[in-house]
Amino acid sequence: MTSINNIQGITPIPGTQSTQVSQSSKTQGFESLLNSALEKTQELKEGTKTGELSEIPALEFDIQTVSDIVTDKTDKLLTSLESYASQLHDTSVFLKDIEPILEGLNTDAASLLEETLSLGEDDQELIDIATSTAITAKTEYLKFQRGDYL
């Protein structure tokens, strides 16, 4: 078995340039690079270069409160109810085309009622408006399913 220390040098191939570097300069080059890297690592561990790092600013987040969420959902549901009412009065729109809109109204109303439960006593007026809007949407859904518009 060949010992790692006894590895023979590479013999040059005839017709190619010979760029032979002495074994001692290879060792010194590697040694100096290794020592340099170790010094930098040691300096970082000691904290000598931490002053160069600057603070990274945090992003500003737009945090919505439960009141804002309920207000947005109520506004969306009122807009959907208005669209539904205009399509219901339009004679060119068939009832089967309105059904997906009503399914969305029913889903949005259930979501709004669920969010309304998270509001505190301070938002009683918002609770009343949101609940009234959700009940109106659910009533329209039930009327449509019952066949009141046939």
Strands, count: 0
What fraction of the residues are assigned to beta strands by DSSP? Answer: under 5%
Low-pLDDT regions: none
Q: How many DSSP helices?
A: 4
Largest sheet: none
User: Which structural category do the helix and sheet elements fall into?
Assistant: mainly alpha
Principal-axis shape equals elongated
Q: What is the gyration radius calculated from CA atoms?
A: 38 Å
Distance between the ends: 96 Å
What is the arithmetic mean of pLDDT? Answer: 78
In sequence order, what are the helices and strands, one letter per element? HHHH
- The share of residues in helices is 55-70%
Region (Disordered): 1-28
Biased composition (Low complexity): 16-28
Q: What do you see in this structure?
A:
- There is one protein chain.
- The chain is mostly helical and 150 residues long.
- The chain has a domain at 66-146.
- The protein is 62% helix and 0% strand.
- Helix 2 runs antiparallel to helix 3, helix 2 packs parallel to helix 4 (124-146) and helix 3 packs antiparallel against helix 4 (124-146).
- The radius of gyration is 38 Å and the shape is elongated.
- The N and C termini lie far apart (96 Å).
Task: Compile the SSE list and pairings.
Blueprint: H1 23-46, H2 66-89, H3 95-116, H4 124-146
Helix pairs in contact: 2-3, 2-4, 3-4
Which key terms come to mind for this protein?
mainly alpha; 62% helix; single chain; 150 residues
What is shown here, in short?
The protein has a domain at 66-146.
